[in-house]
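Contributing: when you submit paired examples, paste them exactly as shown. First protein:
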Amino acid sequence: MNMIVAYDIADPKRLARIAKIMLDYGTRVQKSIFEVSITANAFKEMKERVESVIVWGEDGVKYFPLCEKCAGTVEIIGKGEFTDPDAEYYIY
């Protein structure tokens, strides 16, 4: 499944921990926004990891699921790049 994950974390240490978790699952598109292409099991794991870090009364995380059709119609205006989850990546 494809989704956008956005978060607002009150404490800088928790913010850094959440960002590191999200880097394990997706691509950062803005400071607190990630594009994620993930299986249902990996999504459950990601949520559990996030929930173990956040403070419920201070922090917020939102998961926006995207259907395949919607994910293919993303428009970028201004600074930004399209991230193709099916593209090949080379790590040097």
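Second protein:
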Amino acid sequence: MKTLSAILLLLSISAFADEFEWDINKSAHENVLAMDYKLQMVTLALLVKETGRNCQPSLHKYQGGTELGDHYWTIGCLNGVHWSVMLTDEGYQVMSCAEWEKISGRSCLTSF
């Protein structure tokens, strides 16, 4: 699992960084929720790219959270691949929606 410091680094180099001030007293999920739609999409796409995958974002959606505090977002890319991005207090994890659907039995595009 990647650490939150990677998220902060990615945001700091983003062209949109001056539009949002990261609140260190909030979780990564709460910070992403506070962003406007465009910055959310750019941030999620940067997390996908940080894992070595390609994503020119076309859409995103918040799927939901668990009792453990894990929050799942879906990012759709122009190449037709969709990714599930899990944000936790400790970091984040990215997996393809195909992989997510095998594990969870749910579609990446539905909320829970």
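If you have annotations for the second protein, write them as plain sentences, like these:
Residues 85 and 94 are 5 Å apart (CA to CA).
Helices lie at 4-13, 28-34, 37-50, 97-104.
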